[in-house]
Amino acid sequence: MNEDIRIHSWPCSYYLDTSKQWVSGRLSLTPVAIKFIADKTGELLVNFHLSSISEIKKESSNLIFSSLTILEKSTKHWFSSLQPSRNVVFNILEHFWREQLLSSEGAGAEAAALQSTKGKELTGLLTGSQKRLEDTAKVLHYQGEQFDNIMRGLNRIEGDMDVADRLLTELESPSWWPFSSRLWKAPLETKPKETATVSDSKNQEGIIIRIPVIITHRTDSNVKPGKLTLFASGLEISDCNSQVIHRFESKDVDDIRVHTPYEISVRQRFIGKPDTSYRLLSAKMPEAIPILEMQFSKKIQFLEDALGFVGARKSPQVDLGTSIWQAGVVQPSSLVGDREGIDDDQVQLQKQEKISQEEAKELKQILKKLKGLALETEAELERQDEALDSITTSVDRATLNIDKQNRRIKKLT
């Protein structure tokens, strides 16, 4: 991941202890560091890693009003005149600082990463692949349930069409026809009422991913921490107490804009009233964007600051386990290739000199799970292809029947 990405920057003043004066400039946040550049000289006055921060506080005194302090090792940095507000900057900095401490890129993990063996790198890579394939399988499973609901609805329509056909036959029969009354008295085909499978499945629907986020509603300058939860049927925004702020069903989302790998906006348009729009910022957003891209492929838009990372995602030089964009819709042909690649990888593992027996055993287990997931996903895709063919055939048949019955009704009238 590019550590020079600028997630956010704010105009502010920094207290330069050497000259005992305030210097105006911009405070910038990257995925791993905090920087301050002076406006007049362009000099980089502050540059330290997030993992080296001990404390972030909102402070004030008689001389320094509404300031933000960052304790970096033994040095205390003072920032004031923060725009748009001190609270906004504090919430965002604290979020990325805490996530940095919790992530594997924290202070202790950073040193350990230098000593990571090839086996650990491969394990991390394959674990990431397994997670992406599991997420894809969840989405496909939900899509399969929707296809089943559509088929049940079409079957009910066909039953209703049969009843309508018998009634039209009765109306078309002459009054002296001796069997006409029997048609009227024939019991209608009654099918057991279908339960509300959609609502039930929604209640039982599993969570694909849940990440902490900083929420901005519409164009408000105030931000607050919360959570973003992705389901196969949509997404949900909630506060820190897990109280739902807003839920977007898939059909409700009109567009998703990716401003940076860490910031997106979700919008639902309305006619005659303001749009419902939320802007979400998170250190974990790179994990959610591939899933959003898979679910909302026709509605997601990558803005200028994110276009470079789309190219990086498609570049063959980018590792699967480390790329923040490595995900997509799985196709049957690609799954077959993946299984062949998995087999080749398993052979190559035996040739790695730096892989221990325990690591090789763990990698074999992950490869076995990946192969099973690939088979299951391919089978589900083939089943959905057959279901789509059946749905298309049923819709065509229903359309012909409706046209035919319309012509018969016109003759009766």
Write a structural description:
It is a single chain. This protein is α+β, with helices and mostly antiparallel strands. Among the domains are: 8-102, PH-domain like; 207-307, Pleckstrin-homology domain (PH domain)/Phosphotyrosine-binding domain (PTB) (PH-domain like), CATH 2.30.29. The protein has nine helices and 15 strands. It has helices spanning 86-102, 107-114, 118-172, 180-185, 197-204, 285-295, 304-314, 332-349, 357-412; strands at residues 8-16, 21-29, 33-38, 44-49, 53-59, 67-72, 75-80, 207-217, 224-231, 234-239, 244-249, 255-260, 263-268, 276-281, 300-302. A hairpin with a 7-residue loop joins strand 5 and strand 6 (67-72). The chain starts with 7 loop residues before the first strand and ends with a helix. Residues 104-116, 182-204, 314-339 and 349-353 have low confidence and may be disordered.
SSE arrangement:
Layout: E1 8-16, E2 21-29, E3 33-38, E4 44-49, E5 53-59, E6 67-72, E7 75-80, H1 86-102, H2 107-114, H3 118-172, H4 180-185, H5 197-204, E8 207-217, E9 224-231, E10 234-239, E11 244-249, E12 255-260, E13 263-268, E14 276-281, H6 285-295, E15 300-302, H7 304-314, H8 332-349, H9 357-412
Helix pairs in contact: 3-9, 8-9
